[in-house]
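Dear all,

This email documents one entry for the complex benchmark we are building for the journal club exercise. For each entry we list the sequence lines for every component of the assembly. Then comes the predicted three-dimensional structure of the complex as a token string, followed by one or two observations. Please use this as the template for your own entries, and keep the labels exactly as they appear.
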Amino acid sequence: MALVPASSPGHESRRTAYVNARLFDPASSRNEVGGLVVDQGVIADIGKQVTEEQSADTEVINCQGQLLIPGLIDMLVFTGEPGFEHRETLATASDAAAAGGVTTIVCKPNTKPVIDEVAIVDFLERRARDTAKVNVHSMAALTRNLAGEEITEIGLLKAAGAVAFSDGPRSIKSASVFRRLLAYAGDFDALIVHHVEDEDLAGNGVMNDGEAAMRLGLPGISDAAEVIALERDIRLVELTSARYHAAQISCAKSVEVIRAAKSRGLPVTCGVCANHLVLNEHDIGTYRTFFKLSPPLRSEDDRLALVQGLADGTIDVIVSNHDPQDTDGKRRPFAEAAFGAVGLETLLAASLILYHEGMVGLDRIISALSCTPAQILGLPTGRLTTGAPADFALLDLGMPWVLDVETLKSKCQNTAFEGRKLQGRIMTTVVAGRSVYQYEASD
Amino acid sequence: MTANNFQSNPEFPHAHLLGVEHLSFQEINYLMDLAEQYVQQNQQTNKKRDTLRGRTQINLFFETSTRTQSSFELAGKRLGADVMNMSVSASSMSKGETVIDTAMTLNAMRPDILVVRHSAAGAVELLSQKVSCAVINAGDGAHEHPTQALLDALTIRRHLGKIQGVRVAICGDVLHSRVARSNILLLNALGARVRVAGPSTLLPTCVDRLGVEVFNDLEKAVDGCDVVMMLRLQSERMNGSFIPSSREFYHFFGLGAHALSFAKSDALVMHPGPMNRGVEIDSAVADGPQSVIREQVEMGVAVRMAVLDALSRNLPDQEVA
């Protein structure tokens, strides 16, 4: 059940034509100059036949050759609502999303209270309807209170609108609980999104285990902590055939594990965080806590393997793992600081670094941010076709910009890209036919 | 004098001493030579100078310490500074005040030098970014303890006449040891040949990347060494099982007369203290003729005076205000 944001009555009834755009839609392999007509919040027509010649009641917007891409879908977002509104609300998260071309966000369940009850899913739906300008979906908890013990009401939660099930930043320790979860979720064709980390092995680690951690005197998290959890999960998927999605992988060995699982024909998909595609453990430098992420940034070899995995389709989706942390959480000694970085606004621009460097094709990047997550989540968005919701964005692919934290829409400024030179900027974001973001030079 | 050109000491152009890692060969030797002068001075009846007269030094210890804190206190007082000791208990930190809050509060009292120890790696560096005075790292987590490494090197140089080519074995709990990291970096910078030894559970991942030879056998590690440096087994930092028992640890990694016999006959025995006698070192060896452990303490005061002196030359002149 997709949530349509509130919009002014009458607005949707007006037809709008976006013309003279380069239509870029990986789902239909469309890459041509043309236009798109929005009517009643859906795409009424698309193609090169859509030109400035429109009937009088149609508003015409000239896109001046910019790229028109499907609205992006971010499968891994922490919004803070309910319980952590000082870090982010649905309203501020959706502002940030809109500025990044993201038209759909999927919220992690580690709120307070945890999204483990139908009532909380309902609450989020209503809050999103009233306050958010992009589509908001909930990912409900797999286990009550994320404790890894009791299974949540997966059937009822799914019926209430939860698009996936996850324990957020927690991994389920018990293999038998996880096996039952997979089996039970399979009955409802529910998607399980799992944080893959053996918490026991990760221990009190705060960054990638290796030379950099040793030199900084910080406890490390071995990539084995991820690979062991991932391998275990996949062996259990093999027993149950539920749909399984590893929320994010961070190392070369995990890419191999996913590749092998896919070649065995298992219903396994995985995501990678944009941060891990363009940063590595050395970006931590001298204890820069904005680079303290979970999973940790790994070695350059790991990063290159992730990029390769994305390019060849082993890795399905790119996520932001948007995790706003206030200065109180970050202005601490590295080991004591909170994990996480905001990422909604830089999700696309960070991913485009790989395109501009010639490492991954634009087609792969956009599909990993739109139609592929839509397909995994079972959403009607993420593609530019007649009848689909009019969720799309205009992108100036070549525009250079420098990330100024003061312009971030998120409530928190813990970005891993402060001052970074980026290329490719969202000019307009449209959700259900309604323009929710317009670039202004001051942004 | 402006903040831009405050660096008035060309031989040591640093605002803080946060670690050994970024010190050059010349800067290390400069500090050691300066310390040598203070060793002489400390042996006089009148040990007092007015180098730091009018300056305020605060020893800010988030982790309890007896020797390092008193060593810094004495060093400051012998140079004429007003020294205040401040121990921040874990309880007041748990009230929610962060390291930065504490640092900002103290900074408002306009100290000239902050000597800081903290249990988290990088905490001292973080603090140094938020204050306007000189900061000396007196130990941060398992990261660095630069004055300890300087005093160890000074002790070795006074006995052996050089550091270049000297074979040093650093043994025991290397994993939890900031002393080990700073010593490895500093001794390597001065051309020593450094070995580390310990059970694999107490050696950091990739420690070989620091340019040391790694041993899991104490006798092989000390074989032919000029210096045997034992580390304190930091049981308080061990959550979980690192070694089966201190008895077994002593059996394989405790420095007794037999293990020491594999080193050169006049090899120096060192320990940063406080010692766990009968765990990493035998009392007979700790108090024996090859032990320079007490001399390390003496060098500690001189080295800290040298560091305070060197950094104070870079402090802005207060009279200008």
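Observations: The two ends of chain A are 33 Å apart (CA to CA). The mean pLDDT of chain A is 95.
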